[in-house]
Design the sequence.
């Protein structure tokens, strides 16, 4: 059997069983946005790794190296944010073809450092190796979170509301615009969407506020799309969910691109991924104060998009017509999804 | 300019300048075997990453996945050992072609877990991505070291002796044997050398003993070969060195392979790399007690192979003939070295 026949998440589940071990200092292991380790300080240490692979995550001549460097840091910082933490230290593994221009690598690092400085991250080392094929970039990121603030994917309870930060569908719309010069999208609008597609904004301040409030019950970030990622949260929390398409924070520009591309706007918001917003849950009576705190202190809006159900009630998407359909993941899948 | 024109170490130096930042919690940053972070606990946190790239570090059908998994953990554990630390937590980034056999990946993980358990390391997460080309494996490893035991590449002083653990040249001899079926090497001897080439033994216990003794002044591990790696130690310590070819711990089996291959045995010991032994320095009056402590407690021999000189005295190799030649690195170089 090939790994393409198994698929990304079942593969991870199989590998997780092989390395399953209970070590007392592992507070959160495989299966969340980052590992959380108790190394004896007053904070838990968060630890995550993510890669950018030429031909899978990016196309060489479609993203400037400066933006790719920023993106490499940003997608990892998002995983730390999703635990309520602050990223602090990064290591970079570069696997590069020997004929790559030195200037390209230096631009990559300039972007990486720019984004690192934005979040107070120190790049403390790494590794360089020769690639006989394309470029593979890996970034390992360490962060910290006060013990009491750690927020995982587990903890959502039936009756909780489901909230998301920011806007959904911009990365998907940007991907569509970048591939379809024929679409009559205003230049400035298109450029803004493409920028969101190329470099996400990790919601570090937002995640820390949400976690520090003590009001939220679970959180994760949106890398694969809400339709898929809220499922991971449901898996770990052992709950069901109902998401309302009409409540999804889809900006007008995204709706216009969706219309031009002949797709429902909620499709871009739910199933295309890469928005790197945060989705979290909290009791209904905490939703307003928590939303206001985040939006006042960071400028990032927060939207209620659904509610947590008991596990047996299942996972549902309420369409604008009122019809309820099963919420099944359709986000990008490594090994079975389409190439970018 | 291409990165192949710059070379591995000048490239790293250029990139290090771009991300140079002084953060008070970074005790050791770029330029040593691992980063050392002060995250507030009673131990410093060590943090390192290393990759195994198909076609650069390994050839697919020449290493069983089980051994490759062990190797992936081992080479990283060696970096933690070289700081005097203990590896504790690992993240794995897998970049895999979709047609790879599931059984291959599961065997890789079984080997990884076997080696992880040997050193008390918990695999706490990772990432899976699709490769449009070959296999790229990255492992990020966290470890710990008591503050007072941290041992870096800096600290060697003129007059110190240079010592190495274990034996040198076995990995190089194993590589030669695995590529030359015509060499008349006894089967058992050849197999043992090939095994050393495929999976090194990280000297974790030895490194901790050396560091905890308080007697050693600097340490690094031998990934590129003593001729290159002792140079890194000299760079950071701002010293010179004299290495005696006759004192290098070259096992008889290595000497025989070297003779059959028409190379001087000290060449295999100095310039081929991948032995993953430790090289360290200490004052002359501490060498005997330190060597005995390590060999008694771990069974690993320790050999004095040279002495530290003032920087202006340079870096020298004393040949068995008594002739002194400049000690210049000739270990494997990414971007300019030969493929395996």
Sequence:
């Amino acid at each position: 059997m090939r790994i393409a026949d198994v698929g990304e998440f079942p593969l991870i589940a199989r590998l997780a069983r092989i390395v399953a071990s209970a070590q007392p200092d592992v507070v959160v292991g495989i299966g969340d946005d980052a590992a959380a380790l108790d190394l004896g300080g007053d904070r838990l240490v968060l630890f995550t790794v993510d890669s950018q692979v030429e031909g899978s995550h990016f196309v060489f001549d479609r993203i400037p190296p400066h933006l790719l460097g920023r993106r490499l840091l940003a997608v990892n910082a998002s995983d730390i944010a999703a635990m309520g933490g602050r990223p602090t230290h990064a290591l970079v593994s570069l696997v590069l073809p020997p004929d790559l221009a030195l200037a390209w690598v230096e631009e990559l690092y300039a972007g990486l450092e720019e984004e690192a400085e934005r979040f107070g991250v120190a790049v403390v080392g790494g590794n360089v190796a020769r690639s006989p094929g394309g470029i593979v970039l890996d970034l390992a990121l360490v962060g910290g979170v006060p013990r009491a603030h750690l927020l995982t994917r587990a903890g959502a309870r039936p009756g909780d509301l489901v909230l998301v930060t920011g806007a959904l569908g911009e990365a998907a719309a940007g991907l569509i615009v970048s591939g379809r010069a024929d679409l009559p999208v205003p230049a400035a609008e298109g450029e803004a969407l493409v920028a969101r597609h190329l470099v996400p904004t990790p919601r570090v301040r937002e995640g820390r506020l949400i976690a520090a409030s003590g009001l939220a019950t679970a959180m994760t970030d949106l890398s694969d799309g809400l339709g898929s990622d809220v499922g991971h949260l449901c898996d770990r929390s052992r709950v069901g969910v109902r998401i309302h398409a009409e409540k999804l924070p889809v900006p007008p520009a995204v709706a216009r691109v969706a219309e031009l591309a002949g797709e429902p706007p909620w499709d871009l918001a739910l199933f295309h991924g890469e928005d790197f917003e945060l989705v979290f849950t909290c009791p209904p009576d905490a939703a307003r104060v928590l939303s206001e705190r985040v939006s006042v202190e960071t400028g990032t809006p927060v939207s209620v998009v659904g509610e947590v159900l008991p596990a047996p009630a299942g996972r549902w998407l309420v369409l604008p017509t009122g019809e309820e359909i099963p919420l099944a993941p359709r986000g990008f899948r490594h090994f079975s999804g389409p190439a970018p």
Remarks:
- The first helix of chain B runs from residue 3 to 6.
- Chain B has two domains: 3-149, 161-326.
- The longest strand of chain B covers residues 43-53.
- The domain at 3-149 of chain B is CATH 3.30.1330.10 (60s Ribosomal Protein L30; Chain: A;).
